[in-house]
Design a protein that fits this description.
It is built from 4 helices and no strands. It has 124 residues and is an all-alpha fold. The protein folds into 2 domains: 46 residues; 45 residues. The chain is elongated and about 105 Å long.
């Protein structure tokens, strides 16, 4: 079997599976794919073979989608403003602590320069 025949067979099997899942037969899709029927892909041959082993025909329907509350622009804007204010306060605290540390370190340095410790005694 050539690869083209294998491809055509796979396409036909896929279409048959889709039709069995959706519960309808769509002749337009088969004609749009331009797949020539082969003995392996004819509808009668496909109906005799199960397309998916151990498939259950009665699958439960998915649950309905959860209704989500729409985001109001003012709530979003208020949250963004609050986060920005919190970030600015945090940065201001860091700047203030850095300035205090710098001032304390500079004061210690100036005190050390102004009143140097006595030189070490030279022992003989």
């Amino acid at each position: 079997m050539s690869w083209k025949q294998e491809r055509d067979g796979l396409i036909a099997q896929t279409l048959a599976f889709v039709q069995s899942v959706t519960g309808r037969r769509d002749d337009e899709t088969a004609s749009k794919t331009n797949v020539p029927p082969t003995p392996d892909t004819e509808p009668a041959a496909l109906a005799a073979k199960p397309s998916v082993p151990n498939a259950t025909p009665d699958l439960p329907s998915p649950p309905p989608p959860i209704a989500r509350r729409p985001i109001v622009q003012t709530e979003l804007a208020n949250e963004i403003r609050a986060r920005i204010a919190s970030f600015r306060a945090h940065q201001e605290r860091f700047n203030r602590e850095r300035e205090e540390y710098f001032a304390a370190t500079l004061a210690r340095l100036r005190a050390a320069i102004k009143d140097p410790p006595p030189p070490p005694r030279a022992e003989k």
